[in-house]
Design a protein that fits this description.
The structure is a single chain. The protein is about 70% helix and about 0% strand. The chain is mainly alpha-helical and about 250 residues long. Helix 2 crosses helix 5 and helix 8 packs antiparallel against helix 10. The longest helix is centred in the C-terminal third of the chain and has 21 residues.
Length: about 250
């Protein structure tokens, strides 16, 4: 009897909701949303579909759980110390304290940026969450992480929702675009080659119709995604300071 109980416990632990979510992330990373099926999941977990349905009712619930788990891990990242961030790739070299609202906003932004870059399917799931499930766990989790720091910045109360929303939309939009660059053409497309081809195409545009696009074509080819992303965050923060703080 004791042996049967221990075996049941081991099976339950092996088929926990956390293990199912972990396996689903692996499938999504390997083949995108189309590769996440309950048949593929049962094969990866070496179990039957009934054991999975015990934890998640359907694919929609599973995608919500997977998205929430990845986002929660991304938002748990702590701000870097100024000395570390000043010498790291993709940093603005900010001298602000890691406990400052600005640095905490940057940490949240980079956490989500890196998560979307690592899991390209995440961008579409976040878009779906923000458009159809504002009351689900993901949207409030992201909004709270940004909104607390917006409040800590001293943004006037009547502007807090607008400011937090602008930051969230920039973060998810810019990170999602970065993850999409070149990947829609197939898994074998090198992103550097994709940007180089785009740069060459821009340089060949009509100079009278597209003078600016031609002028920045080489910069687009050579830009660092994380640096550009953080520069955008700094632009937004500068605007917040100028427009939405008392006396700004």
């Amino acid at each position: 009897m004791a042996t049967r109980t221990r075996r049941t416990q081991r099976r339950t632990e092996a088929l926990s909701r956390e293990r199912i979510v972990e396996a689903a992330v692996e499938l999504l990373d390997a083949a995108g949303e189309g590769g996440l099926t309950f048949r593929a999941l049962t094969e990866r977990l070496a179990t039957g579909p009934g054991a999975i349905y015990w934890h998640v009712a359907n694919k929609s619930e599973l995608l919500d759980a997977v998205t929430d788990a990845v986002v929660a891990a991304a938002l748990a990242i702590e701000p870097a110390e100024p000395a570390e961030s000043a010498g790291s790739a993709g940093s603005t070299g900010s001298a602000e304290s890691p406990d400052s609202p600005q640095e905490k906003i940057r940490a949240v932004a980079l956490g989500l940026f890196d998560a979307i870059d690592e899991h390209p399917w995440l961008a579409a799931q976040l878009t779906a969450q923000l458009s159809r499930s504002l009351w689900g766990s993901v949207t409030p989790r992201i909004l709270e992480s940004i909104g607390r720091q917006v409040r800590a910045l001293g943004v006037v109360e009547g502007s807090q929702f607008t400011v937090a929303s602008a930051l969230v939309h920039y973060i998810l939009g810019a990170a999602g675009q970065n993850a999409a660059n070149g990947r829609g053409l197939g898994p074998d497309v090198d992103r550097g080659e994709f940007l180089a081809a785009a740069s060459r195409a821009w340089q060949e545009l009509d100079p009278e119709e597209y003078p600016f696009t031609r002028a920045v074509a080489e910069q687009m080819r050579e830009h660092d995604d994380r640096e550009q992303f953080l520069a955008g965050i700094d632009l937004v923060l500068t605007g917040i300071t100028a427009l939405h703080l008392p006396g700004g």
